[in-house]
Amino acid sequence: MPLKGKTAVITGSNSGIGLGIAWELARAGIDVVLNSFTDRDEDHALAGKIAGETGVTARYIKADMSSGTECRALIEQAGACDILINNAGIQHVAPIDTFPPEKWDAIIAINLTSAFHTTAAALPKMRAAGWGRVVNIASAHGLTASPFKSAYIAAKHGIVGMTKTVALETAQEPITANAICPGYVLTPLVEAQIPATMKEYNMGREQVIREVMLARQPSKEFATVEQLGGTCLFLCSEAAAQITGTTISVDGGWTAL
User: Fold this and answer.
1) Does 152 participate in catalysis according to the annotation?
2) More exposed terminus of the chain, fewer Cβ within 10 Å: N or C?
3) Could you say which DSSP state residue 144 is in?
4) pTM higher than 0.90, yes or no?
């Protein structure tokens, strides 16, 4: 079934991975709804830029993904929701015995619970339309673990499990649910961290990328937001109609170790 004219809601999409996914879907003719917790002129301008360059309908809707009420309101305000990309996420690093409880609560709410609320609100729309795709942006940390990231890893493991449950609940319908598990992705936020890391380790750019930032990524190359967008687009295509309840790793071999 052609994807042109379908509507995708992408949470956490005014920058980084979410924005990259929005661009790739829009280039395929899919109308997009961008989202974050801010409501700035530049947020709405991003939607205008996507619409202007691709010809699709693009909108920006503010919603705080830490609020279940706002998560569900986002889907209602979007109108149609043929494709749901649960991408919103935050991170905090600390040993578990000193991990701030408020950070735990925020990470679980934004990285995991938000996807429960948006999916619960989106599935009736998909069923009414007779077609749907749920793509959850998990992480290599949804399949493995690292120290000091207890909340993030718990949330990402949770999103992988929830993906399987949604897939089973929709298995006899024209709706699929899958998770993408990226490794380290070159986003503007990561790019901005490179100079400080070079200074900290007294290394050149390529050395610090390969030996420090990508120490666990066997390819020694970042994934790109365009690659993640392309993977999302594939999962939305008819070629992926029988791919459901699974994870696709875009991690340069990290989880093969």
Assistant:
1) yes
2) C
3) S
4) yes
Nearest one of 8, 15, 10, 252 to 125, comparing CA atoms: 8
136: tokens are: 């959850």
Is 52:60 a contact under the CB 8 Å cutoff? no
Q: Which member of 60, 152, 184, 201 is catalytic?
A: 152
Rounded distance, CA 118 to CA 239, Å?
25
Decide if 225 contacts 190 (C-beta within 8 A): no
Q: Give every strand in the sheet of 58-62, ordered side by side.
A: 58-62, 31-36, 7-10, 83-86, 132-137, 175-182, 247-250
Q: Can you tell me the mean pLDDT for 139-156? A: 97
> 11 is written with which tokens?
């949470």
Secondary structure letter of residue 130 according to DSSP:
T
Residues 48, 56: Cα–Cα separation, whole Å: 10
Of 63, 53, 64, 67, which is closest to residue 23 (Cα–Cα)?
53
126 and 175 in contact (C-beta within 8 Å)?
yes
Tens of pLDDT, residues 165-180: 999 999 999 999 999 9
Which fold is adopted by the domain 7-184+223-250?
Rossmann fold (3.40.50)
